[in-house]
Amino acid sequence: MKSVLFSRFFILLPWILIVIIMLDVDTRRPAPPLTPRPYFSPYAVGRSGTRHPLRRGGPDSGPGRGLKKRNESRPQPQPQPEPPLPTIYAITPTYSRPVQKAELTRLANTFRQVAQLHWILVEDAAARSELVSRFLARAGLPSTHLHVPTPRRYKRPGLPRATEQRNAGLAWLRQRHQHQRSQPGVLFFADDDNTYSLELFQEMRTTRKVSVWPVGLVGGRRYERPLVENGKVVGWYTGWRADRPFAIDMAGFAVSLQVILSNPTAVFKRRGSQPGMQESDFLKQITTVEELEPKANNCTKVLVWHTRTEKVNLTNEPKYHLDTVKIEV
């Protein structure tokens, strides 16, 4: 019995050894590394350690998102503010007469359409009249109401008019701006019997020193104008005294506010001034012909007319007030 067992054992022993050897070799092989599955965190960690949720998709996602955000965080350049619009100061002498309110109404209707305009209205009177005061209060315009009477000895025919009134306007301007010399502005003598195109105010607003342009219906001609060559005034087309240093009408020029403030003694003169020479006497104090700035397409366009209101006919007006009501005209 034992011999049979031993014989079977020795028969199976080689096979048992082969199985043991194979198992031993298999256990000595290195195991393949485990590859972890990728994990995407729904949060992003900031510099301070705080966690912020991420946005998935959308127009801001992608490789350029960070660059875009950095560009947006940079301060954008601010647009430069536009320079202030120069103020046009219109000095208007006026005096009491039947057509005064009608003249001022037409002038105010024009001035209301001009941006940044200040009206200096100067009465030829010892005191402000109620008519002009009420008119200005309702005109809806930035304005200053002055008054100064013309001495009786200067009211003779043939003598210059409105001298004291224009000088009063100049004095007010200099006093107002004695501490504000850097403010841009333009001075214009706007008589109340003229008609003005709105384009004229656009032209004069760019005046650097003294600008000039034609005037219609003046000097016995359809118009008068400075003669211009190569952008410079070289003479005058006029029907009266072409030998004047500045053969120009009062409505034909504008002066920079800085020029007025820099020449505090420049005024309209009474003594030594001949009729029709006031413009020349004033301009000689502040500029030369070579420095004049031609406007209105090199002085080839008429933008102001010396129209003057027709003298009214009041032959049937009663000597004493007969109406039951008093109407301001």
TrEMBL record:
Membrane topology: Single-pass type II membrane protein
Pathway where it operates: Protein modification; protein glycosylation
Extent of Pro residues compositional bias: 76-86
Protein name: Galactosylgalactosylxylosylprotein 3-beta-glucuronosyltransferase
Catalysed transformations (reactions): 3-O-(beta-D-galactosyl-(1->3)-beta-D-galactosyl-(1->4)-beta-D-xylosyl)-L-seryl-[protein] + UDP-alpha-D-glucuronate = 3-O-(beta-D-GlcA-(1->3)-beta-D-Gal-(1->3)-beta-D-Gal-(1->4)-beta-D-Xyl)-L-seryl-[protein] + UDP + H(+)
EC annotation from Swiss-Prot or TrEMBL: 2.4.1.135
Similarity comment text for this entry: Belongs to the glycosyltransferase 43 family.
Cellular component annotations (GO), alphabetically ordered: Golgi membrane
Keywords, alphabetical: Glycoprotein, Golgi apparatus, Manganese, Membrane, Metal-binding, Signal-anchor, Transferase, Transmembrane, Transmembrane helix
Cofactors required: Mn(2+)
Transmembrane segments annotated in the record for this chain: 6-25
Protein location: Golgi apparatus membrane
A Pfam family reported for this protein in Swiss-Prot or TrEMBL: Glyco_transf_43
Active site (catalytic residues): E279
The organism of origin for this protein: Rhinolophus ferrumequinum (Greater horseshoe bat)
Sites annotated Interaction with galactose moiety of substrate glycoprotein: E224, N316
